[in-house]
Write a structure and sequence with these properties.
Layout (H helix, E strand, L loop, with lengths): L1 H22 L4 H4 L4 H5 L8 H4 L6 H30 L1
């Protein structure tokens, strides 16, 4: 039983090494498309995540909005049901 586990571990190690080597290769199709301007351009500035992601709504506001939407939908469905009842009579 022990040699089988050792075989799995060694295969996993070889696979990891092969993936690491493949990840480090040069991809000329991509690199050759860069213009000289792009090659000499500086990296964009790093910004804090707070500036990149819109803030989430306050849970109390969100639940209040959802409650109002559901109440309006309930009223519309009840009115529609009443109209259907009247149309059947």
């Amino acid at each position: 039983m022990m040699p089988l586990r050792l075989t799995h571990i060694s295969l996993l190690g070889l696979l990891s090494a092969a993936i690491a080597v493949a990840a480090c290769t040069r991809v000329p199709e991509i690199e050759d498309r860069l213009s000289p301007d792009m090659r000499s351009a500086s990296y964009p500035p790093l910004l804090p995540v707070d500036q990149l992601v819109a803030p989430l709504p306050v849970p109390e506001e969100q639940s209040s909005d959802l409650e109002q939407e559901m109440a309006a939908r309930t009223a519309r469905l009840q009115a529609r049901a009443e109209e259907l009842r009247k149309a059947q009579n």
